[in-house]
Amino acid sequence: MHQSSGRVGLGFSLALLTAVLWGLLPIALKWLLSSMSAATITWIRFMVAAVLVGVVLLVHRKIPSLSALTKRKKLLILIAIAGLLLNYILYLNGLFLLTAETAQVVIQLAPFLMMLGAVYLFKERLLLWQKIGAWLLVFGLLLFFNDRLALLLTQFGSEGYGLLLVIAAAVAWACYALAQKQLLMSFNSQQIMWLIYMAGALCFLPAVELAPVLELSAWQWGIVVFCCLNTIVAYGAFAEALQHWQAANVSAVLAITPLLTIGFAQLLAYFYPQFPSESLNAWAWVGALLVVVGSMLTALAPMLRQRL
Predict the structure, then answer these.
(1) Axis crossing angle, helix 109-121 with helix 128-144, rounded to the nearest 10
(2) Contact, 27 vs 268, CB < 8 A?
């Protein structure tokens, strides 16, 4: 199994950078979805990332070769590619039907599912604090939707469909993350992400709609550039964080992402009232905090138990 380098400070900084960028991303994507399709946005992000990362790898003569890989490693690459591609498109389609805050709170299931997958694959026992964290996360989600829970359970509308899409995106992301963790024994993080970017650019090409792209304003083009750079920097930082820090620690830092999204969205809605923001009551805020605490507990429990 892949072993982290032990550079804790660097791993923490990279994980925190990832959390901030992922906290901002759904807000930027929400703006773009009013002008472009989910497939077009996804293709642009993958295409730009594939070109830029490919140039860096080419300059350093580190373009990955798949010929010498075992069947198991090739299968892991396919899982990582399919997982991240599905995560992108499912999340965007879910985000179209939800607010940025709601989508980001629900996608918090992703690192939690990654932890469960690691427990299953590495044959580890689920610790008491992990079980408590899991219940806190579920209870937090219920509290977050406290004023809409009855409606979601009795009437399956667009919001319910959006929630299912985001939950499916979380499952797909967990599969990608677990596969990437093992692939770090054969490739560096940039090589893995380049393979995924190339696959994504090819897969989403047939669904691209170029007409809306030509009609974007300068402001919208700025958001497109931010989303493209976010793709490269955030996932690059995440992959490097896994290289230097334990997956549990990285997951714990990523747990603050929904709080960052809620904070950024509320701030943006204050200055731009036309932005679709969530009106959260006190219980919803408590629920969001419990989601974060629960995710942190499930991620950090093994490390805390070992130190104690």
Answers:
(1) 150
(2) yes
